[in-house]
Amino acid sequence: MRLGYVLRRFIFLIFVMWTAATVLFTIPRLSRVNPIRERFAALARSTGYAPKDLENIIASYELKFGLDKPLPQQYADYMGSVLRGDLGVSLMSYPKPVAELIGEALPWTIGLLLVTISLTFLIGTAIGALAGWPRSPRWVKGTVTPLMVLAAIPAYTLGLLLVYLLGFRLKLLPMGGAYSPGMVKALTMPFALDVVKHAILPALSLILAYVGFYALGMRGMGVTVQGEDYVNFAEHKGLRQGRIFYWYYVRNAILPQVTSLALALGGIVSAGILVEGLYGFPGIGSTLSAAITANDYFVIYGVGFITIFAVGISMMAVDLLYPLLDPRIRYDRK
Amino acid sequence: MELAIPTTAKGPSQRTLVLRYLRRNKSLVLGLALLAFLLIFSLGGSLVVDTAKLAYPLAAVPLQPPSAEYPLGTDKDGRDLLAVMIRGIQLTGAIGIIAGTLGIVIGIVLGLLSGYFGGVFDSVVRWMTEVLLTIPPLILLIIIAGTIVDKNKVTVLTMALVVSILSWVGPTRVVRAQVLTMKERTFVNVAKLSGMGNIEIIFKELMPNMLPFLVASFVGQVMGAIGASFGLEVLGLGAVREPTIGMTIRWAQFHSAMFNQWWWWILWPVLALIAIFASLSLINVGLDEIANPRVRRTE
Questions:
Q1: Domain limits at A169?
Q2: Which of A46, A246, B99, B194 is buried most deeply by CB count within 10 Å?
Q3: A222, part of any domain
Q4: Which of A16, A273, A297 is closest, CB to CB, to B134?
């Protein structure tokens, strides 16, 4: 792998983040909604208290956030603050910085999604490999279409069914939250087990919703690889089936799967955000859904920005790892 | 359309061939059957049930479980859930079809222009699609819908338009890639040498060959649009006054229907959504078999 490729890939990431930041800068300015006014309006509705000098208060806030300066100046300031990791302050829990709010929620989301994505990738690839292998039993080959249909159904909907059946009806698993109320948050065995128990349903909703995507991709590649000369050659040499399966068939078919791992990341993360809201799992998805209900715009933008950043960086990581897995790929300029 | 129809006079008729093909392509048949059921239920249902009244609040006794009078029950705000499902499938389907159509039309135009003519325009389009492919669509839509649109004035049409903002990305990539692989083939060169103009080549040579991909891409975008609008609706960014499937689930969740044992309020919209996605996905699997004959071997 050449340095040039790494550099180009990195510049692309910066470009993506720049676009995201620009969108986040532009959209609020296109809209007639004033977040601060909205917040005071909501306060007035819920508490019946409407400050008399509301316009002055709003003007003072705009001064504080620099909204009175000319646009190019605002844009430069905004980009500067984004570079420093300053995402503004939450209106819902003022004056807590958005970055701090996200920082508290992020470990839960990362934990849930890392486990879910790894399991989905492994299970899906295994099923796809078996389904594409000519010597597999018929029923194994038939599993892909139902999984594909499952993959089309939003994870949120699957989550609703699961929570109803396993959580509410059969009472096998907790219906929401990340740990039982009253649990001491510490690195102890009972707490860890409790967290795992709470994470099963959200994880299962996501796994069921995405396993078919990887299974279908792997089966497609598997079918292609089967026809290759080196597989025929291995068969004629009389190699054991197991060896052909792992080292000739799976090893070659799995490579494009890594690319589709990167492609599906955005979808899984979005689905994860919705599923978190459904289960009240205390990650950034729940933060986002609370922020939408409360009109807390800065938190919405912050979560959006962080998510785009996380997905962008993960996709870059996968792209950079790819040539290490496939020695044939070299990203040289032609 | 991709069937190998024998040129000899005594082969089986085209109808027999199509039927024979459909017997093998079970996904396509199952998907179309499910879609037909949904269409008959929602379009036929609106002839029998007065959805303009019953699908909206205060039309029925609230919170009735399924009974002879209300076959699917009623919700807390007094909507008749049978009417809600009939109207909801129409509205949700409309969001998908509007966004899917806009997406595919814009995608064809951008994809053809950038793939066929190349140049600076191509580079711009390629960069835009690549950047947008990196950004999770739902996140971008949440930011846009959460800011620009007044939450209480969202209609089904605004929903469809918001979702359309990103529905052109996929089709553009598909069309561009297809054009790039086809443009160098012999038949395009022959057409060029025989004096065909660019426009004629695009419409007479390229488009017919892309049809299976276009149809699959359209179905994919309809699914994507319905999925994205569902995501927005569940988060509370949907058309609050309209009984779409997603809004029905949103209200059921909002009023904790599950904890309160009002199972019918949540079960029907979930089943409807599953039926919609299952039918479209099966159709797509079936179309994929037509477009990529290689997959056929394993079935």
A1: 111-294
A2: B99
A3: yes
A4: A16
Give a yes or no: residue A26 inside a domain: no
Fold of B43-295: MetI-like fold (1.10.3720)
Cα–Cα distances (Å) from A87 to A72, A99, A135, A273, B279, in that order, read 19, 6, 55, 19, 42
Cβ contact (<8 Å) for A292 and B294?
Answer: no
Q: Do B281 and A151 touch (CB under 8 A)?
A: yes
Under 8 Å between Cβ of B51 and B83: yes
Contact at 8 Å (CB) between B147 and B217? no
A6, part of any domain: no
Say which CATH number the domain at A251 has: 1.10.3720
Q: Check if A3 contacts B (Cβ < 8 Å).
A: no
Q: What is the pTM of this model?
A: 0.89
Hey, are the CB atoms on B136 and A267 less than 8 Å from each other?
A: yes
Q: What are phi and psi of B8, to 5 degrees?
A: -70, 150
**Closest CB to B297 among A12, A31, A223:** A223
Number of domains, chain A: 1
Q: Domain extents for chain B?
A: 43-295
- List of residues 6+ apart from A123 with CB closer than 8 A: A207, A211, A214
Is A300 within 8 Å of A88 (Cβ atoms)?
A: no
C-beta of residue A321 within 8 angstroms of C-beta of residue A1: no
Cβ–Cβ under 8 Å, residues B95 and B226? yes
DSSP state, residue A32: S
Note whether residue A155 is domain-resident.
yes
